[in-house]
Amino acid sequence: MGNTKKGFPFGFYVCSLSFTFERLAYYAAKWGLTIFIAAKAVNGGLGLDKTVGATMSANLVALTYITPIIGGYIADRWISPRLLVPVGEILMGLGYLCAWKANGIGMLWAMVILVAVGTGFFKGNVSGINGRLFPLADADELDTVFSLQYSFVNIGSFCGTTFLSLLAKAAGYRMLFLVCGIALFVDCLWWLFGMRFFGDAGKKPFLVDNRVEDVNKEEKDTTPLTKLEKNRVISIIIVTIFSGIFWTIWYMVYNPVYFEFGPTSEAGLGWANWNIGSFTMPTAWFDSMNGLLCIILCPVFAGIWAKMRQRPQGDIGMFKKTALGIIILGLTPATMVLAAILAGSGTKEPVGIWIIVLAAVSMTVGEVIFSPLGNSFISKYAPKKLLGTLLGIWPLAIFFASKGSAELYKVLSKMDFIKGYGMVAIVIIACGVIMFAFSGKVDRMVEGE
């Protein structure tokens, strides 16, 4: 196996490419589920209200953030992680086949549940095995390993929303779900083939690993938290709350892109012009922009933070980064309000594709500024006895954010678009400004100064 300085073992590519196949299907299906539910039957959909599509997509996202906690618990204590992964892939594949044959919400709920449970067995365990392929790597080297794995994730999401959306456009949404299911079964075969390259990694439950057992012993320490540790816990909770605010808006923004600004062929009102000549871009290409920009911008911002760390005053703190991410995200609904004014909320000529590009850029820049740093921040500052708990509330916040995004969209869909989304833009930017203003004080709480 070895470490990163001696190169990447083949098992790394088994794990990373498994993510590519899985994310290709997941992001394509996440988009397809929203549109399939709302599209008219004549266009191959179920013809239900657009808020139903938004809600089901939010349920899918929310549950797939919770189940990895359960799947990780099972893999830690009872079942070999490398065996749980193919079980998860099969369950996800069956879930997508349920959507392929769906004629109502019941079968789509079956898809959501199967994909969520399968994701729970798959997601964290693949990363856990991948990390154990580098037993000699230090923290910086592991950052490199997981940064490259994240690139494989984004390649999958980009290919899924870019190319499978074209398949849906040509052959219908059901064909998209069928291909998603096939992709997971192929992924399962790839994993079964690649397990021989893992050595001992993932053969037994993770807690059999002596290094993890040592951490667990330390976590049993009953010594009361110091004042500094209490301040750090408060600071982590503050970041998590603002992270929840960020993701609520982030997930909600997809819905007006799909419906209010989407082309009429996909159940939208067509406030934006998605045409390139005679070709109408699928709304999934908005998702593709996010994936592509993540691939481009993540290393760019990693380089920026590295350069800033070399300054005498050092890098800016996590709280300033979170605040900047929230402020920049607030530009997305603000841009949509401007576009809605120009389009007369659908009564005038559609606005140019610039609205979609600007929305994707502001969402993604806000995301890459702080999102990749959350788990690192918690791992660095959380008291050892509370590390697992605090790492657990991070995905829990995203669970509630995803559920909240659908409810927020329901409320906004009943309001005048310009007024509703204008208020959202003001509130989210104000949250970022407030956090930025108090970031120095919270930084001092974390550092103990």
Structure overview:
The chain has 449 residues and is an all-alpha fold. It has 14 helices and two strands; from the N terminus they run ααααααααββαααααα. The chain has helices spanning 10-38, 50-77, 81-100, 105-132, 139-171, 173-194, 210-219, 227-258, 284-309, 318-342, 354-370, 374-381, 387-413, 417-447, and strands spanning 275-276, 279-280. Helix 5 runs antiparallel to helix 6 and helix 8 packs antiparallel against helix 14 (417-447). The protein is globular, with a radius of gyration of 22 Å.
Relevant terms:
mainly alpha, 2 strands, Growth Hormone, Chain: A, 1% strand, two-stranded antiparallel ribbon, 2 domains, 14 helices
**What is the CATH architecture assignment of the largest domain?**
Up-down Bundle
Structural class: mainly alpha
Report the biggest beta sheet as strand number plus sense, adding barrel if it closes. Answer: 2 strands, antiparallel
Count all strands and give the number: 2
Number of domains: 2
* Gyration radius over CA: 22 Å
Distance between the termini: 42 Å
| CATH secondary-structure class of the largest domain | Mainly Alpha
Given the C-alpha coordinates, what overall shape results? globular
How much strand content do the residues show?
under 5%
CATH level-4 homologous superfamily of the largest domain: MFS general substrate transporter like domains
Outline the low-pLDDT stretches: 210-216
Count of alpha and pi helical runs = 14
* CATH overall fold name of the largest domain: Growth Hormone, Chain: A
Strand order of the largest sheet: 1-2
Mean pLDDT: 87
Q: Helix content range of the residues, please?
A: over 70%
Secondary-structure element string: HHHHHHHHEEHHHHHH
